[in-house]
TrEMBL record:
PANTHER family: 4-HYDROXY-2-OXOGLUTARATE ALDOLASE, MITOCHONDRIAL (PTHR12128:SF66), DIHYDRODIPICOLINATE SYNTHASE (PTHR12128). This is 4-hydroxy-tetrahydrodipicolinate synthase. Pyruvate binds at M218. It comes from the Bacteria. InterPro entries: Aldolase_TIM, DapA-like. Gene3D superfamilies: Aldolase class I. One of its GO terms (molecular function) is 4-hydroxy-tetrahydrodipicolinate synthase activity. It comes from Noviherbaspirillum humi.
Length: 316
């Protein structure tokens, strides 16, 4: 497995965790899901993230799931594992376990308990100590989920202190000016130049973020080919084509990003696409109503027509 480094780019797709109807891990669907992401052109995968329901898994389930994904990927693309934890002991234990299994690196977000700039910097100094000098890691900046606001200047302080932090997952919103500032600092040599991959709710600002200097996307959507194709078109210099592709998927991507119900929407669509066998979200979790399903069907039909209009297949 390739070790994560600051040259990472493309589309790192955030995977869901498939469950059976009874809430148990579905490893057969996990294999199909990995195949699906790779067939759609994933540059890398990120597992046990916020949309991967990581807090609902036991430590043993986490290891089983990671082992299954890594075995199926079989070194074809890098795999990043979410390692955020309430304490440093479980963070170290999970990190050591997944790196031994062949993960490329881990991702860490700040806990909700850190508030001041100095507290944030001190926390990530302890992350560096916990992970050690051999484990590359990704800094996750996702204030909506963590409640922690990290300014560009704070992130640059963290990067200067963290030689093994090789990637920033940028998910602040609004965050375009922040992204520009971090990228400019790296280009000037004021801070290490790290890979910047963007999330922001299914990539809702992906074309603009790529124009501001992002190296790619790290997010999830039931149609991951959107991220793959937008990143490819933008990298090829066809910015208008990137926007056209993005616009065709935007209504459904927006719908999937509703707080609370979004994961249920994504799993429903992945079930319909034949990727997973059940749309189950582990409890506590939402269930879709008949009205929700009707909305989704309408949006998928409109998306299919629009993709055909711009010369794309629009097939499931």
């Amino acid at each position: 497995m390739k070790t994560l480094d600051s040259s990472a780019k493309g589309a790192y797709l955030i995977a869901v965790t498939p469950f059976a109807d009874d809430g148990s891990l579905d490893l057969a669907s996990t294999d199909r899901m990995v195949d699906f992401y790779l067939e759609k052109g994933a540059t890398g995968l990120t597992i046990l993230g916020i949309m991967g329901e990581a807090p609902k898994l036991t430590a043993e389930e986490s290891r089983i799931f990671v082992r299954q994904v890594l075995a199926r990927v079989n070194g074809r693309v890098p795999v990043i594992v979410g390692a955020s934890a309430p304490g440093f002991a479980p963070m170290r234990e999970l990190t050591e376990s997944v790196m031994e299994l062949g993960a490329s690196g881990v991702m860490v977000a700040p806990p909700s308990t850190v508030r001041t700039d100095d507290q944030i910097v001190a926390y990530f100094d302890m992350v560096n100590e916990t992970l050690g000098p051999e484990v590359p890691w990704c800094l996750q900046d996702h204030p909506v989920a963590t409640g922690v606001q990290m300014s560009a200047s704070v992130i640059l302080r963290v990067l200067k202190n963290s030689p093994t932090c090789v990637m920033l997952k940028h998910e602040d919103n609004p965050g375009l000016a922040k992204l520009s500032a971090i990228r400019a600092a790296g280009e000037r040599g004021d801070a290490p130049r790290v890979s910047i991959l963007t999330g922001n709710g299914g990539g809702l600002f992906l074309p603009e973020e790529l124009t501001r200097g992002a190296d790619g996307a790290m997010t999830g959507f039931a149609y991951p080919e959107m991220m793959v194709d937008v990143v490819k078109a933008h990298a090829a210099g066809d910015v208008e084509r990137a926007h056209d592709i993005f616009d065709a998927y935007l209504p459904l991507a927006r719908y999937e990003q509703q707080p609370g119900v979004g994961l249920a929407v994504r799993k429903h669509l992945m079930l319909k696409r034949g990727v997973i066998a059940s749309e189950a979200v582990r409890k506590p979790g939402p269930k879709l109503s008949a009205a929700d399903v009707a909305d989704i069907e309408r949006l998928v039909a409109r998306q299919t027509r629009r993709l055909q209009e711009i010369g794309r297949s629009g097939k499931a």
